[in-house]
User: Which sequence fits this backbone?
């Protein structure tokens, strides 16, 4: 698969041959959904908690006598039925993370990349470097390239000026190539890869 390489100024910088085993797959929605669910579950805080019956500081004196009242047999005011009592089966602090095989994660990333390539939402750029960290100038360049909602993947390190200029732009995410993930790819309309990011991804899945 051949794709043109552009520059930040909108010029042409040649072309690149994309690996069909990474960018040419038929996207599978089930794999993408599994990986997104795994990512979101893993980052969920799980700090929600309530007081159950054993956590309530109330008297343990029997509410009323066992027999003869015609009412249910209660032994403590901390029971869930009473106002101020403990919560029955409420949420507790826990991890929501679950396992997903490494091979499934790798395959899902390939399918996410392929989905962007299939939708013509994949842009390859030669490099992301700026002389000055000016957000306004970068917004103008993105406007010429049609990047209003995009994930930009650079090399092993993002150039400081570019990172500073891009961090104030809404709907624009910038990540180094080692931080690429399925959820961030799918949540943005376009995926922008630098030439070094393409080389790194092809080396990773070799």
Assistant:
């Amino acid at each position: 698969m051949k794709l043109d390489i552009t520059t930040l100024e909108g010029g042409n910088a040649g072309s690149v041959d994309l690996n069909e085993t990474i960018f040419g797959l038929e996207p599978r929605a089930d794999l993408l959904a599994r990986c997104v669910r795994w990512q979101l579950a893993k980052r969920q805080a799980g700090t929600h908690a309530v007081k159950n019956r054993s956590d309530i500081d109330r008297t343990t004196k029997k509410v009323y006598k066992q027999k003869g009242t015609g009412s249910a047999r209660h032994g403590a005011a901390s029971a869930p039925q009473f106002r101020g009592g403990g919560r029955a089966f409420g949420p507790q602090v826990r991890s929501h993370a679950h396992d997903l095989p490494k091979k499934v994660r790798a395959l899902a990333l390939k399918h996410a990349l392929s989905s962007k390539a299939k939708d013509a939402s994949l842009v390859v750029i030669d490099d992301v470097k700026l002389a000055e960290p000016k957000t306004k100038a970068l917004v103008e360049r993105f406007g010429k390239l049609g990047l209003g909602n995009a994930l930009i993947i650079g090399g092993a390190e993002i150039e400081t000026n570019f990172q500073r200029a891009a961090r104030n732009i809404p709907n624009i995410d910038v990540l180094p190539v080692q931080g690429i993930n399925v959820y961030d790819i799918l949540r943005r309309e376009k995926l922008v890869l630098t030439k070094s990011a393409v080389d790194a991804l092809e080396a990773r899945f070799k």
